[in-house]
Every structure is written in C-alpha cells, then in structure tokens.
Amino acid sequence: MKNHKYLIFSLMITLFGAVGCVEDAVYMGEGPEVGTSTVKLNEIMSTGDPDWLELYNDGTEAVDLSGYKLADTSQEWTIDNLTIPAKGFVTFDCDDSNIPNVSTNFKISSGGEKISLYNAAGELIDEVTTPDMSSQVGLTYGREVDGGDVWAVMSPTKGSANSNENMAPVLTAEPMTEFTDVYSVIASDADGISSVKLIYMVNAGVQSIDMALVDDEYKTSVPKVKVGDIVQYYVVATDNTGLKTYYPENGNSDPAEFTVIGGVEELLIEGAEAGYRGEVTFKAKPYYPDQVNELRLYYLLPGEMQDETNDDKTKVDMVLNGDYYEGTVPEQNTDDVVHYYIRVEYTDGTKTYYPLEEEGSDFDHDLGTTWPSYTVEEKTYDPVVDQTVNSTQGPLTSATFPTNPVPGTDINVVLTYSSTVDITEARIYFAVGDNPVYEKDNKVKGEDDGSFTQTGVTINLKDVLTIDNLSLSESGAKVSFYVRLQDADGYEYYYANDGTMYIDESGAGGSTDQSDDFKADTSLWNVYNVQ
What we know:
This protein has about 525 residues and is an all-beta fold.
C-alpha cells in the first residue's frame, strides 16, 4: 500500500458485464524472474463486482499484447489486438461471456490462486499467487510499487498508479428501512479496521452502536421504533490509522432518514380452492401489532366505483384472530372482478395502506381502478374413474344400494365422495310407480344424519320405505331415485343412472342450473324393484 507515485499515461480497457466468479484451487509456489519483461501483473481484484486484473508496462516503449496469455490454475485467456503504452496500464474485467481483447472467460478466485502471464512466444514472464481475500472485500492484491517486487493488500487503484497514500476504509452498505431487524455492512482496509459503528438517531435521542464482525460482515440489531418516529442514521468505519469512511457519504453531516409508517407485513387471501369461489377471507398481519388501533378491508364489487364522484366501496372491520386480522368478501359469480385494499390505523393516528401509497406506486386508495383485484374462477371438477354403480365425475365416487330392500327393515345406502370437496348435505330422492313424475309434493327424500367423514356417509331408508303412500308392501313395486350432494359453497350435484353428474351452481352465485332438466327426465334416475 505504501507506493511511490509515478506520472504516467493510463489506458484502461473497460469490458462488459459484472458477475460473480468461480472458485479455483489455491496454488502456492515461487514466481518466475520478471526483470527481463517490462509487462507485468500489477494489481488483482478478486472480491469486487466485477473482479478485475491489471497489467503494467514498466518499459519506455509501447508493447503489442496480441498473443499474450493470462492463466489461472484451470484455464488460460489469450489477449488479442491490444497495445499497452510505456508506463501505462490495461485492465480486464471478470465476466461470464467472451469479451473484447480476451479469447475466453475471466475467473478469479477470492479464496486465492495462481495467476500467470505468458508472452506471445508462450514464455512465462510473470506469476503471482494471490492470498485469501474473502474477508478483504473491496481491497486488492497489488505491487506496492508499480512493477516492483513487493506485493501487498491495498486499496484499489484500477487503471492508475498504486498509491503510497494512507487511504480510508472501503465501506459498502445498503439503505436501512423501518423493517430492518439486523443491519449489515462490509468494511475493509489494508491497514485493518479499528471499528465500525452505527449512529442511530430517533427523535431527540442518539445511540452509537458498535457493529460486530460476523461472517465477514459487520452487523448489529436495530433498536425498535414507534409508528410516526423520524429515524436518522449513518455508519462510520475507522481504520487502524484513524481514517474514516461514512455511509452515506458525508453521513455525519447529512445522515440518511426515513419516517416509520408501519403497514401490512403479510397478507393471505383464501378462497375456495384458490379460485375465490364462495366467501373470500383476507388475513392481514400488521407491523407493530402492539400499536395497531384497527384494520379495515375495503372492496368494490362489479359495477361499483370509487373516484372523485363515486363512493361505492364497502368497509369491513377486520377482527383479530391470533397474529392475523380477518375480514371477508361475500361470494360472487364466476368471472366477477373484486377490487380491494387494506388500511391499518395506528394509535398515533397514522394510516397506512396495503398496497403502500409511496413514490413510484400507482396505488391510490381514493381511486378504485388502481386497487389490486381478484377474479372469481369457474368451479369445475375433473372426471373420476367409475368405481361403482353410479359415479363417473364430480365429488361422488361410489354409491352402494341394497339388492333386495324389504319394507319395514333398516335399509342403508352408503355414499362415498372425494375428501377434497367439503360436502355438507347428502340426500336421496324417491318416486314410486311405472311412470314416476317429479312433483314437489309427490316425492320422498332420505337424508343423512350430518355425520360426514372422508370415506362417506350412510343414509338409513327404513322410515322412507315404510311410508304408506309408497305402496312398497307389494312385491315388484318400482322405485325410482337419484342422489343429490351439496357442498359448503352452495353447489348442488345430481347423479343419473349412467354416472353422469348434473350441476346447479345458482345457489352459489353461478349461472349454470342443470337440475330442472334432470329432475324432469325420470329416465335418468336409478331404478330398483321391491322383491
């Protein structure tokens, strides 16, 4: 790092792309005699973005580098159509694609490796093994004097003379937000880091927090704040010679700043089978839950508007359930589009929205066309393999009926349905006679007792089969029947004698109703005769 300064002509070739570089094996060994060559390896960055490598010409004449080769422990790169001036520099950026002046890809290991330089005749003219630089992020390995014999870890001087000045630390950081629990920065210096501190100011209070080196990063927990607080902060890294670097630049006089606004940390939207069929439940987990006064869900149904002249939105006060506040939107029809947003109000009166109203966002809680939305999908069922007598599609997978029902005895019909559908009611409808007609007052229904399981439900038909008007005491009486299931969303499923399913979604807000045609066509019903 302590280098003599030279007045030179600097030529820096900037190449394209900046990506991470692969790790190669570390090589330890003696380098060649380099005094006979004026072109030398001069500085190597293996922890940068991008990594790069610098050559220096110590001679009094320019040198054509065409045909020269750079190599690491696993591959080599050929330089093409490039001249380095006397007392000048050229640099090559690490990249994952073929780049100008180099025939293949550059890759430099931050863990340390051998780097070699060959002339156009294939003779080794320079070589150095870099140390492990993984904990020296932002620093380079270079000659203390350009073209000299001594190498050292130093502050980068890409494309220019290696400096003999004592330079301030290299400090890399990203902005802190109100939601940052652990803040991390990277600090390096050739003379070593003495300390890294986070200066944290909330309202009138100031804290100086020492950041600890953990996994090559300086880290600290961030003090808790309240909604409405104005937070200012900066980071200062000091090296062992007392030089300092700030983040942001000049942070000690112009610190970074943000206002704590809170909002929704996590939002879950739950509808039937993720298609938003039936009632849709919103579950919102807010930041700073101990400071929340209320959460509200606002929504617009099809045909409703929210703008300067219209205020059709519906407001739902969300109820706390565990870590989440919950609110619901009622069931809508297939293809309906529902717009929504959530408002969090804190005890200090601050109101924060989901999505956030912030710079660069299109969301405006006063303009409904900017709100997020969901579309109600059609409810469909894939066909089910025909397992037994009367089911080939829909939730019903089997139905078992008695072969010879006897009036006055327990007669059980067992229905089995898919466990993925929430069935809430199962019925069997009967009519008696050779030419049954569906009439509201001329049918008898057998119902389950509400004890549903994933494997099915049993319907006892004893009482049905002993009703006098069924005339089941006569042998050979013809009984026609069908099965109807209803799910938690209000959809009804009717099953014909060939296993075909007819659906009625009108009770769930849908437009399809096949049940009336099915009921009217009793030829589609199942039939058995009393023995």
